[in-house]
Amino acid sequence: MARVVVGLLAVFVLFITMPVVAVRAGANTLVVVGLLAVLVLGVLLAVVTLVLRESRKARRAGYASFWAYLAATPKTDAEKRAAADLALKGVVVCFLGLLFPPLILVGLVPLYFGARKVIHVSMGLGLVDDIDLPGA
Fold this sequence. Notes:
By secondary structure, the chain is mainly α. 76% of the residues lie in helices and 0% in strands.
């Protein structure tokens, strides 16, 4: 996770500084735009890879879909750790969104679902499956 964060941070620093340096050095604007497009595609590829990894983890845990995994309350310690990890990934992406604002919107999804799972566990919710109680 730390390597991913450092890599994304490095990409965003390059994303911000490269056009300024290149244009001032007299580079062709088309070349600068092409390099920026490659960087943006790299970031999108990293986000897609993270989503696919989480989807694979959800299928291995026995959930029908990725959204069912996100909606479920964690039951095992591994799922609890994964929920906290998901919330922290969302926080990191939101902080990276300070450099590149559209990432805040991307980071809110894992932040919401991860924090929701962590809060449900800390409140003790979901420890008992939905039981139809007579008279409730």
